[in-house]
Amino acid sequence: MLAIDHLRKNYGAFRLDCTLSVKPGYITGLVGQNGSGKSTTFKAVLGLIRSDGGTVTLFGKDSRSLTVRDREELGVVLSDSGFSGYLCIRDILPVLDSMYRRFDRHAFVADCRRFQLPLDKKIKDFSTGMKAKLKFLVALSHKARLLILDEPTSGLDVLARDELLDMLRAYIGEDDSRSVLISSHISADLENLCDDFYMIHDGRILLHEETDVLLSDYGILRVSGKQYEHLDRQYILRIKKEAFGYSCLTGEKQFYMENYPDIVIEKGSIDDMITMMVKGENV
Fold this sequence. Notes:
Strand content: 25-35%
Shape: elongated
Order of helices and strands: EEEHEEHEHHHEHEEEHEHEEHEH
Oligomer: single chain
Helix content: 25-40%
Largest sheet: 6 strands, mixed
Number of helices: 10
Structural class: alpha/beta
Radius of gyration: 21 Å
């Protein structure tokens, strides 16, 4: 569905060099701190900024050769884009009608009413959360094959985030050939949504793993200095010095549970793992 191979972009001291792929039927998460390269990657994939190298393949084609019909198969949410604030939702209906052959006006209006988005109020007078909901509903409105969603739940409260993520699950459930690339700095939102994760930091992919493996096999060991001295470190990915001793990230939690019953082993959240990958050191 989407393949990125060493996509490069330079901004002064920042260097993006990103390789990732999104399989058909997959929801793939791209997680990392603000400024890590998530938005730059999305904009380069969409051709909104010029890349400095690498390749992007969408729907089996070089992204530079996509037709207008091909681009209709994309549904996009970007954190810093949206409609003119002087329009209202009723104004954008004919625009969406003319842009997308499969735009479902009836379903879109029904979803706007469900999320309490007024059809005749100027978008500039919407709250941050209302604007986020509108962008999300537009992305889903024309049955795109690939959704590229950059921080789509930013500005939403917990209930609204859960409702939108439920809509996203249902959207993928309707057609198993659809795919999603979604970024968020609220990684907990994505743990029960994504099939796999890429962790990005300073423009580089630090880790790629299936979600089931990440949540079942990875863990964080909390060990004293003495315990660390006697620890088999062949399966340790990162270490971090702590006041009590060391935190150690491993992708083989079961090995340490079986061989070191006296040490503390925590499951760890996606955020914990990002922190260890970013702030931890190689063994």
